[in-house]
Structure formats: C-alpha cells, structure tokens
Specification:
single chain; alpha/beta; TIM Barrel; five-stranded parallel sheet; four-stranded mixed sheet; signal
Length: about 400
Amino acid sequence: VETMINRVTYRLILLIALSGAPLVQAEENATAVDVDFLPLKRAVRCTAAKCQLPNCRCSGLRLPSAEFQGREQEIPQLITVTFDDAVNVINYEQYQKLFDGLINPDNCSARGTFFVSHEYTDYTLVNALYQQGHEIALHSVTHGTGTDYWREADVELLMAEFGEQIEMLMKFAKVSRKHIRGLRLPFLQSAGNNSYEAAKRLGLLYDSSWPTQRYRSPAMWPYTLDYRSTQDCQIGPCPNAAIPGFWINPMVTWLDTAGYSCAMIDGCIYPPQDNVDALFEWMLENFNRHYEGNRAPFGMYLHAAWFQRGRHHFDALKKFLHYVNTLPDVYLTTASRVIHYMKHPSLGKPFNGCPKKPQTTCIKRSCGLRKVETGEIRYMNVCDSCPSVYPWLGNPFGQTEY
C-alpha cells in the first residue's frame, strides 16, 4: 500500500511540475497554467485576421504575408534530418560520419533532431550529440506495446510516458529542460486530442508525428492548433480541439518508385534498387517537390536500422546531404529551429546567428541494473552516477523503492 501511495504521490508531483509551470516550461512556449487545464474547446475555422504570427498560424500551403507571394525561390529551403529510437554505439558512429563537415550557408554547423526512446539508449552518447548541437527530442519511455496502446492512451499516461522521459534525459544525459522542445509518437499513432493536450501541458513546443499525403505538392507548412486543422488525417484519431500555441510540424510524405506514400523513408514499400545513384536520384526527386515548389520544410524521417537494410543506403544518404549542402539557400537544421523560423519567417538568410552549443560535464558510468518488471539484467551507460534499478515508467530515476 505504501508503495502504491508513493507512486500516486510521485505522479501528482510530476503532473504539477510538468504541467506548464514557469520553472520547467520552455521559454518560447510560456502560457498560464490555469488556461491549460480548462476544458478543451472544439477548434473552429481559422482566419488570418484571428491567427497571426509569431504564436498562431493557420494550416496552409504558403507563407501568409504578401511579401512572400511570387517570391518562393527566395525563401530559404529548410531540411530536417530526424532519427527515431535508441541511441547506441553503432548508430552514434553513423551519425558522426553523416553530419561530419556539413556547414550551412550561414557558416553554422548542420544539425539533426533525435527522437530518443529510453530502452537500450546510451545516455552518454545522447549527451555527446546534445553537446554537438543536435536536438534531443522525445519518443517515450516504453515505446508502448503496439498502436492500440497509443491510440487509447489518456492524458495522464501520455504525460507519464513523455514527462518521465524528460526527467530521464535531464538526469542521465544532462540535457537542459529548456532544450527539450518536441516529440514524436511511437508508430506515429495519435490518441487524438489527448496526445496534444498532454504535450502542451508538458510545456512542449511542437509535435512531429502527423503525416500528410494530400498536401505534398505543394507541401504543407508547419502551423499551430489554435484553430481547426485542414490537414488530412492518415492515422486517426486526429485532434479536433483548440490547443493554443502548440505547433504541428507535418510529416510531408515521400513517394516511392511505385507512387505510394511513405512518411518514414524506411517505410517506403518500393524503394529504388540498392544502388547509390538510384537512391540519390530518388531522394533528389522527393526534395525537388519542395525546392522547386513552395519551399515548405523538407523532412527526412528515418530509423538508423535502415542503414543495415541495404549496402548502399548510408552512402546514398550521405551523398544526398553533401549535395544539398552545396546549394546556397538550403539549410540542414533541427525541427525546433524550423518552428523558430516559422514564428519569424523571412526571405534569404533564415536565422540570426548560430545556436549556442550547450556545455555539460558527463562522467560515463556503466551500470548493470535489474529491470523490476521482468527481473532481467539491463546494461546502460549514464552520466555521473548509476541508478539503483533499471529506470522505467513510474520509476524514471531508478530508485530501489518507488
């Protein structure tokens, strides 16, 4: 009974601490806590008169100001390279080789976004990516047990999955709370309004889980959920409530060689043959729909396991990134920087200065820990000190008694 009371107490403390209160809330997403906890209102149609930047944007296919009309080729082309799931010693080395030497036209280093899940993650390598200037984002503690788990999740469960992961990243990888801005739902499976209400209560800025097939050419730009979204709903339920100030970074789908849509690169049913040039040309074709079109951000969404599925997958991606890196108006940047640009869009140079790289001290500790739920021994690397047992949902710090 005492253990159950401790769990409930911990959950209540976590919900309060992560509900959007100023101590933990990201600085660009500050809102009053009381507003977040009011009953959700059904979203109504968006109009430019009611929804204006920097904190509100209607869903749509073009930048709103007349300044941008007819001048699409002067809009900087932003590219986000994102990876899902655990960070380990194998894919960490691949990430180093992939981004090595890539410098954007503003002389800032090209960087990616890592939607990290907890299990099997090496937190010292997450810290290394973080210190290099990559974005560390959320992909849940457990990754669930399938799509039903996420489709049926209530707000409390979602806040635990992602809120407790925030705690883990802060403690074991020494990632600053203010730099944890976004999430991607496992399997891209939404729980409708619950997913986005939980994310907003946690003080997050954006979600990158929602694919669009309909708005691929021209492509859909990021937008907020203040008003009704016009985006097509591929993996329902999708939200129909107003979530003020919370951004959707839509996953504009690719086309495979047979014309089928795929949100994740490694999810394409008919990819090109395993040949560097064929894969490169395929990537270029998908990119050019954006670059030669309305210049909406171009997303490259994948799992590092894709590199093991073809001899030439890694080399092809590297060739593509080095090619686009030669273009004078293309920027390889993070998902949160894309939202920063959306708040203050401009022609030409998209950002004022380079983001400051965090500096932390991480003393590597290798830990052999019992996973309470199964009794098995799990090994994990963390910064500074080992927990008592393997951290898990309901026990993010790995305390012996919880």
